[in-house]
Amino acid sequence: MSSVHVDIADDAAAAATDGFYSPAKQKAANRRPTVLTIQRARQTLCAAKVKLILAVLTFSFIIYVSSKLSSFMGWNPHYPSFVSSPSRGGYTVLINSWKQSSVLKQSVAHYASCRSVERIHVSWSGSEPPSEKLIARLNEIAVLKSEGAQKADFIFEVISGDQLASRFRPKSYPNTDAIFSVDDNVIVPCPSLDFAFSVWQTAPLSMVGFVPRTHSVNKEQNNVAYYRYEGWWSVWWTGTYTMVLSKAAFFHRKYLDFYAHMSPSIQNYVANERSCEDIAMSLLVANVTGAPPVWVKGKIYEIGASSIGSLRGRSLLRNKCLNDLISHYGSMPLVPTNFKAVSAKNEWLW
């Protein structure tokens, strides 16, 4: 069976030779391509309108979902007065050191090699002051290992009185909004650190860090809840966290000012206790923002001895700190969440 193709021009020619030609037929034949062209143009225009409407609806839906997610996560673009805009420059690495000279040298050398680091500030805690030789060597290491366009500034601060809480004392450098607080025995690879910084830039009000922790209600008596400080295994099991520890976390420099102006009762409590200053900072930020922190997925490494975190009875002490500080606030400011920031470059599965 063969197909038959009828062309408009052939049809008009046939009409002219079959004895049935008329001016009306010729006019209709000449007008027909124009009608088809208009119909096709209308169909194309309608399809374009449909695509445009779908695109607008999709874009509106994305904006709506993003705004809801941002509000839920605490990624609020309407910053308070102390955050005019996310920091576009680099960041300061605030290293909390605990009488570990060899570990501190490794830490300074590593963070000086990260390109976005503008300043390294070491807060030395301990009853024995460091030697001038050590300070000079650390400064030399910071200069030699710097990879940025400008060499990272180096500042060494001796905290008198062996007060760990003084690590959050306000600093005299207004050039970086972002502070990366880290213990001297914790190493975060530079790519992971830069990714966490980019996450913090989208949420400059929040604490953004690598070490999540959570809490649970242990018991209630007389309508008063007693909370338990939970470690990593609880986060792994439940997928929920309420804090990121300042042993490896970004926060805005203004929180150092806020920390210094906390209630005197809280300041006195933190000064008299040990292993409480990081919990106090988490409670402070949560109380200011009313939002959860942000956990960044990334590997971190511990070097040397963890002398600060190996105190006996640490778990009981952390429970006591959490509950005592909450009693000072009068309510529980911590907000639970199960979101995690992950770099798509490092993920095989979506």
Describe the protein in words:
It is a single chain. With 350 residues, this protein is of the alpha/beta class. The chain is built from ten helices and 13 strands. The strands form three sheets. Strands 3-2-1-4-10-6-11-13 form an eight-stranded mixed sheet, sandwiched between helices. The protein has a three-stranded antiparallel sheet with strand order 8-7-9. α3 runs parallel beside α4. The longest helix has 51 residues. The protein is globular and about 90 Å long. The two termini are 53 Å apart.
Largest sheet, in brief, is: 8 strands, mixed
Helix content: 40-55%
Strand order of the largest sheet: 3-2-1-4-10-6-11-13
Taking the alpha carbons of the first and last residues, their distance comes to 53 Å
Rg over C-alpha atoms, rounded to the nearest angstrom: 32 Å
Strand content: 15-25%
Overall form = globular
Order of helices and strands: HHEHEHEEEHEEEHEEHHHEEHE
Low-pLDDT parts are: 1-20, 61-79, 307-312
User: Helical stretch count?
Assistant: 10
Please report the total strand number as a whole number.
13
